[in-house]
Amino acid sequence: MMTTLQTKDNMKLLKKPNVKLPLKLKMILLIGLLIIGMFSIMGVFLYYFFSHTLEDQLGERALSVAKSVAHIPELVDAFEHEDPASVIQPIVLPIQEATAAEFIVVGNTNEIRYAHPNPEKIGERMVGEDNAPALTAGQSYVSKALGSLGYSIRGKVPVVSEQGEIIGVVSVGYLIEDVQTVINNYSRELWYALLIMVALGMIGAVFIARYIKGVLFGLEPEEISHLLLQKETILQSTHEGIIAVNQDGLITLINTAAQKLLFKKEFPKKDVIGRAIQEVLPSSSLPEVLKTGKSQFDREVELNDTDTIFVNRVPIFYKNNLIGAVSTFRNKTEIDRLTKELTQVREYADALRAQTHEFSNKLYTILGLIQLEKKEEAVSFIQRENHIQLDWIDFLMEKVPDPMLNAILLGKLNQAMEQRVEMIIDPSSQLTSSLTERKRDILVTVLGNLLQNAIDATKLNDDKNNRLINIFFTDLGEEIIFEIEDSGPGVPEELTDQIFTLGFTTKAGSNRGIGLALTKQALNKIGGNVYLEEGELGGACFVITIPKDGEI
């Protein structure tokens, strides 16, 4: 036998709490929003990064072309020509076409154009008002300004004569509109790629949500919380102790009942959760269950001199993989106490039933004698039976003052009489010592078991005139002693060492072999014992000893 985790079909039977939005849809939406947010931020960043990078590169390119043009000797010399434009324009136009610049404009210190893409504008003043740093300070730089052709990125470089004087300026530019067109073309491809990645991310979100939903047995988070609370309440309210470990032998769960049974106190569960089971409970057999994968049922374990527990240990499997083990245990001492109480009640009920049956037979006998008008015989029968009962009661009241022991002996006397078994209590018997409640309860249970066994054994005697049970008890010494001897078939010598073993029996039928084993265990708990000796009647003779002083 093994414990397996519940499947999705089992979970459907559980009442579900109110769930507004399914986990699967919630995960798809959250992951989708996360992906869209991330790629949107990335797209905006890449757009501005690419825009600035492209503008910087074009600015550097314009500046580089302007420097090359400004250092052409022919162009420098042309400034001393009567008509500089006639020399400079032919030099600049091929360079403009080769570099794909929007314009290359050359002007003098008064910003009068000597070269321009539009020949009609040659001789006019340069537009943009951004030439001062080059003409006055001799700086080379990149600027943005609105010119005659539009808003553009410009590279400005001064033209310097051989004497080192600034004689003009070269302006190479690219229109912002053209730059923006290039940026938009690249950005469109970028956004298409990002949209494809978002779509793939959404598809991945669907598969992730489906996988997680399957791992959670189709449960919603609210349902998991509900089940966890329900499980925790059940675990902490049950009277059986429960300890669970994972496949590594680390404690994953312990309930309140387990703490009280094993440690006699409650403490924060974090003190043991996550620790090795052998560290907390060195005698635990859970590691053996983890190793073998086999269950253990109804194993009896003694915790100390007074407490014994019954333990069940079961491995936990998930998809045929061993993932842990769980141990449940209950207090055997409480079970024994309930068993003893039940045995006593049963003994009392049997005794009353036997007494009722016996008196019913006697009433019918009296009725028959009266109907036959045998009044003297009826009176004599009544007096005789009354004398027997009174003798028993008087004897037991005098020799056994304890009402519980008195009742069990009287009940067994009536039961034996009903079953045509003669039960005799030795006249010298006495038990006047006071007993603790625990010793009295155990003694009542032990006497009930042994006397019932004696009655059953005696009935097996084929000689109906030799069905006899002798009882003797005394408390004269330091111990209380009971001897119960019967005329049954007895116990074979080769079996005398086994009769007190749990499960061993010479009787037919199931659920046997318990009484004598429990009798010995119960007596051992109060320092007593039970022995099997040879009897004078030919059957078994059981001797019970219980110390009078001290409570074990």
Radius of gyration in whole Å, from Cα? 54 Å
Structural class: alpha+beta
Q: Count of helical segments?
A: 15
How much of the sequence lies in strands comes to 15-25%
* Straight-line N-to-C gap: 39 Å
Mean pLDDT equals: 80
Shape: rod-shaped
**What level of helicity do the residues show?**
40-55%
Which blocks of ≥5 consecutive residues have pLDDT under 50? 1-14
Biggest β-sheet, characterized? 6 strands, mixed
Number of strands: 16
Any key phrases for this structure?
disordered N terminus; 49% helix; 552 residues; alpha+beta
Would you mind describing this structure in some detail?
This protein has 552 residues and is of the alpha+beta class. 49% of the residues lie in helices and 20% in strands. It is built from 15 helices and 16 strands. It has helices at 8-11, 23-70, 73-78, 84-99, 132-137, 176-215, 221-237, 256-263, 277-280, 286-292, 332-371, 375-399, 403-418, 437-458, 515-525; strands at 3-4, 103-108, 113-115, 141-147, 150-160, 166-175, 241-246, 251-254, 296-302, 308-318, 321-331, 422-425, 468-474, 479-486, 529-534, 540-547. Strands 1, 7, 8, 9, 10 and 11 form a six-stranded mixed sheet that branches. Strands 3-2-6-5-4 form a five-stranded antiparallel sheet. The protein has a five-stranded mixed sheet with strand order 12-13-14-16-15, with helices on one face. A hairpin with a 4-residue loop joins strand 13 and strand 14. Helix 2 (23-70) packs antiparallel against helix 6. It is rod-shaped and about 175 Å long. The protein starts with a strand and ends in a 5-residue tail after the last strand. 25% of the residues are buried. Residues 1-14 have low confidence and may be disordered.
